[in-house]
Amino acid sequence: MDLWQLHIFCKVVELKSFSKAGKEVHLSQPTVSSHIRALEEHFGCRLVDRLSKEVVPTRAGELLYRYARKLVALRDETESALAEFQGKIRGRLVIGGSTIPGAYVLPQIIGGFSRVHSGVSVTLIIGDTEKIIEDTVSGELELSVVGAQTADRNILQEKLLNDDMRLIVPCDHPWAKRRMVSLKMLCSEPFVAREPGSGTLKSIRQSLDRAGFDPGRLNVVAEMGSTQAVVQSVKSGLGISILSTIAVAESVAAGSLKTLRVGGLNLQRAFYLTRHKYRSLSPLSRAFIDFMKNKQLN
User: Fold this and answer.
1) Segments in the chain forming alpha helices (H)
2) Do 254 and 260 touch, CB atoms closer than 8 A?
């Protein structure tokens, strides 16, 4: 077993494919398969199951993946520290983003950072806020940006930028020509919500609580695992929802969705730079954070 084999194993698990992992690490599919077999022989157990369309880790593989991610991250941190010692910014950085910042904020920042520091490779992991915070606590992610605060004492959060959420309705909805609806009206319509681990859902519930309104009064007809699924559900007429204006900007510009305010409901929230309170940041992470803060300020 060596770090290179663990790196390949992580790619197979993350991409769910031997061929995709091979392209990522510039190896042929048979070579990738031989490295995985070598790991399985070393540990004496099967690490992945080869299903019809994808590769998934076994229980043993899931356990190895958790430790392999940490070992590969430590390797990257070591390379980054030595590069900084020589006055260079280089290495691999794995960061996380909850659905909205992961899809609409971080890609642009990563692109700008990579243009400035060509020797850097950045991997972005996207999930709901709950999952991203869990991975930050475990050390699988060195830093992340999420759409809600957490009570976890192991986490340190800092406000990065503000976000404005609005009620969204399809362009042919009876409310489409309105600018505002009441909380009472909000309860009268079918509502499409994000899944329980979502920062968007947590922020909506907090806003309703502050307004003295029971979130349970919402007529939730469906829960969706992604913002895109919510958007498509609203467009198809399944119900209305509340989402970040960043996420629906293109649909609003195209005229397929309309945004409204809800009277008496403050839907402002923030995106938070999130990291482990007791883990030291690598030089590469510090450089990325500085770049991200300067970009938001400018």
Assistant:
1) 3-15, 18-25, 29-43, 59-85, 99-100, 106-116, 129-138, 183-187, 199-210, 227-235, 245-254, 283-297
2) no
The C-alpha atoms of residue 49 and residue 102 are separated, in whole angstroms, by: 29
Look up the CATH number of the domain holding residue 49. 1.10.10.10
Contact 258, 130 (CB under 8 A): no
Q: Match 């790991």 to its residue by tokens.
A: 39
Helix (H) or strand (E) holding 180: strand 180-181
**Domain span at 1:** 1-72
Q: Which two tokens stand for residue 21?
A: 């992992």
Number of structural domains (the chain) is 2
Both tokens of 173, joined, read 């909805």
Please give the Cα distance from 144 to 57 (Å, whole number): 25
Does a structural domain hold residue 140?
Answer: no
Contact at 8 Å (CB) between 201 and 195?
Answer: yes
Q: Quick one: tokens of 179?
A: 């600018």
Instruction: Name the residue among 62, 70, 55, 73 with its Cα closest to residue 15.
Output: 55
Full pLDDT tens readout for the chain, 298 residues:
788 899 999 999 988 899 888 888 888 989 999 999 999 999 999 999 988 778 999 999 999 998 998 888 888 777 777 766 665 666 778 899 998 999 999 999 999 998 888 878 888 999 889 999 999 988 888 899 998 899 999 999 999 989 999 999 999 999 999 999 999 899 889 999 998 888 889 999 999 999 999 999 999 999 998 899 999 999 999 999 999 999 999 999 999 999 999 999 999 999 999 999 888 787 788 889 999 988 764 5
